Structures are given as structure tokens and as C-alpha cells.
Amino acid sequence: AILRERGELDAAIALMKEQERLCRELGDKEGLQMALGNQAVILSDRGELDAAIALLSEEQQLCRELGETAGLQNSLGNEASIRAARGEVAEATALLKEQERLCRELGDKTGLCGCLNNQSLILWSLGDLEGAMALHREEERLCRELGDPNGLANSLLNQAVIYAAQDPRRALALVEEAHELAVRCGLEELSIKSKPILDQLRARAQ
User: Fold this and answer.
1) Residue 71's CB: how many other CB atoms inside 10 A?
2) Cα dist. 9→100, 115, 161 in Å?
3) Which residue, 180, 173, 181, 178, is CA-closest to 202?
4) CA–CA gap between residue 30 and residue 65 (Å, rounded)
5) What are the C-alpha distances in Å from 117 to residues 133, 140, 157?
6) Rounded CA separation 195/173 (Å)
7) Which of 41, 55, 114, 149 has its CA at 20 to 30 Å from residue 173's CA atom?
8) What is the pLDDT of residue 39?
9) What pLDDT was estimated at residue 7?
10) What is the predicted pLDDT for the residue at 131?
């Protein structure tokens, strides 16, 4: 994790491949599952998407064998993100639906928030604004329950962009809350992202 954060992806992959080799020799399926998943994330960062998907598929198989539902939902979400980025919408949606089901079974509200957000972005891209909004609203409710300012501000901002054309006043209220939350909680990237949207909507409201 430290090497990845430093951007030393080759060194990180080398260590994880060694971990994978040792886990295979020892028959350590739990360790192997983690090693495969971590490698897949780095390969995805490097743009080696086919290789990442292959590792995620093996990780998911191990998770099913081990009954490791939490690891499985996370792996499904990672593969869905890759497939969505490649425009493989049907495949990504199917993976996210399974991830959503598992998160609900586990009571994993944090995982569910991310899953709902990713599904909403797909629906948004397909022009299903009503469906996207319904998912964003559930995500918003969960983020408020969890006390997750980053997830909440992102959800509010996404809703505002959808509302902007049909209900600019509602959109303005959402962006104002998102921007205030980002500034108050020190979410610099989000505050920078929301400021021009806020300024634009305020100008339209005058």
C-alpha cells in the first residue's frame, strides 16, 4: 500500500507477486485472495485492464469458495469500475447489482453507498435521470446516517447537476449544502469542484 501511494507501482507489483507465489505454495487461499485483489487494483492503475480483470475473476472464485462475502462484494465493485470505464455497461451493471445484493445482505452501508453511486452514474450516462436520482437519494440518506461528509457532498452535487436544467432553485440549494459541507470538512478537491457550479447557479437565480 505504501509503495502504491508513492507511485512505485512496479515495486508494489513485484512484492505482491512474491506474496502470491508464497500463498500458492502454502495453499493459503485467504492470503492468495488478498494478493490477487491488491495486484488487480495496481494493474488497473497501470491501465493493464485485461490482466486486472483476470485476477479479479480468480479472486471472486476464491471468495465464493471461502464464503468471503465482504471480499467478494469489493472485488465485484472493482471489476465493475473497470468494465464501466471500458464502456461495457451491461457487464458493469450486472456486477454492481450483485454487489448491491451482497452489501444489503451484509448490512454494509459504506459499500452500498459506493455501489449505488456507481450504478447511478451508469444510469445517468444512459439518460435515465429518474433512475439515477432515485439511487442518489438513497445514497444521500445512507451517507447522512454514516456521517460521511465526502460521500454526502458528492451525492448532493450529482443530484444538483441532474436538477440544474429542470429545477435550478432545487439544484442551487443542493450545491450550497455540498459546497458548505466541503469547506467545513476540509474537502479541498470537492470545494474546488463545487464552486463554479455554485457560482453558475447563483448567477442564473438572479
Assistant:
1) 19
2) 30, 26, 35
3) 173
4) 10
5) 10, 10, 12
6) 13
7) 114
8) 95
9) 64
10) 97
Q: What cell was used for 189?
A: 478537491
d(CA 201, CA 199): 6
Q: Of 112, 117, 84, nearest to 100 (Cα)?
A: 112
- Gyration radius from the chain CA atoms: 19
Element (H, E) at 7: none
Residue-level pLDDT at 37 = 96
How many CB atoms are located within 10 Å of the residue 170 CB?
Answer: 14
HEC-encoded secondary structure of 173-202: HHHHHHHHHHHHCCCHHHHHHHHHHHHHHH
Across the chain, which has 206 residues, the per-10-residue mean pLDDT values are 65 90 96 96 93 98 97 98 96 98 98 97 95 97 97 96 90 97 96 94 86
45-53 long-range contacts, CB within 8 A, separation 24+: 45/4, 45/9, 46/9, 49/82, 49/85, 49/86, 52/78, 52/82, 53/79, 53/82, 53/83
Cell representation of residue 5 = 501511494
Residue 102 grid coordinates: 451482497
The residue assigned the cell 440549494 is: 173
Contact 115, 103 (CB under 8 A): yes
